[in-house]
Automatic annotation (TrEMBL):
Transmembrane intervals: 26-47, 53-74, 86-105, 111-129, 150-169
Keywords: Cell membrane, Hydrolase, Membrane, Protease, Quorum sensing, Transmembrane, Transmembrane helix
Name of protein: Accessory gene regulator B
UniProt keyword annotation of Transmembrane present: yes
Gene Ontology CC terms, in alphabetical order: membrane
Organism: Paramaledivibacter caminithermalis (strain DSM 15212 / CIP 107654 / DViRD3) (Clostridium caminithermale)
Pfam entry (one): AgrB
InterPro entries per UniProt: AgrB
Length: 191
């Protein structure tokens, strides 16, 4: 359904801008990605707001925002698993943050677990590095660039997480830690 709408919108945009066939394909792909992101963000927003109303103590909205930003930051540099179907990807992108939210509600990470998670993540980042996908192959230089910056990103996330933890914002720290765990599990599934 999303793909069909993207095709129609992309073709219409190509017609208006008098684009060639290659440009039309890029427009269709871009519209589909944009629509998926929009549906994903709106869905997460609505679900987390409903959870905030039903279980105020859960702090669902802020937790999901922290999780999502951290996860995207990691995924941007290291890549990860890609489903064959964009609808499955969308569903997983909505369900996994909700799972993380409920895991966070039942598990509190201490400073030693934080250190362990980030040490393991850093080692995985060094050993595996950035992975590409079928639709976008990366050159060795691009992989090196993303890996180097990804390792810097892990250091930044870790530093911010430790500071947040030490200032007593346990929920935020836990969500950052869970996003890191899920981000690197996603990377492992993508290899």
């Amino acid at each position: 359904m999303i793909h069909n709408i993207a095709v129609k919108l992309g073709k219409y945009m190509a017609l208006i801008s008098e684009s060639d066939r290659e440009r039309e394909e890029i427009l269709i792909y871009s519209v589909e990605i944009l629509m998926n992101y929009l549906i994903w963000i709106v869905s997460l927003f609505v679900i987390s707001m409903l959870l905030n109303i039903l279980i105020p103590k859960l702090a669902a909205f802020s937790s999901v925002v922290v999780y999502t930003v951290t996860f995207i930051f990691i995924r941007r540099y290291f890549g990860g698993y890609h489903t064959k179907n964009s609808m499955i990807c969308l569903m997983l992108s909505i369900v996994v943050p909700m799972i993380a939210l409920f895991v966070r509600y039942h598990i509190d990470f201490n400073i030693f677990l934080l250190l362990l998670v980030y040490m393991i993540s850093y080692i995985i980042g060094i050993k595996i590095g950035t992975i590409d996908n079928i639709n976008k192959r990366l050159s060795k230089e691009e992989k090196s660039y993303f890996k180097t910056n990804g390792l810097k990103a892990i250091k930044i996330i870790f530093t911010i997480n430790i500071i947040i933890y030490l200032f007593g914002f346990q929920e935020i720290s836990d969500m950052m830690t869970l996003a890191t765990i899920f981000g690197f599990v996603n990377l492992l599934f993508g290899t």
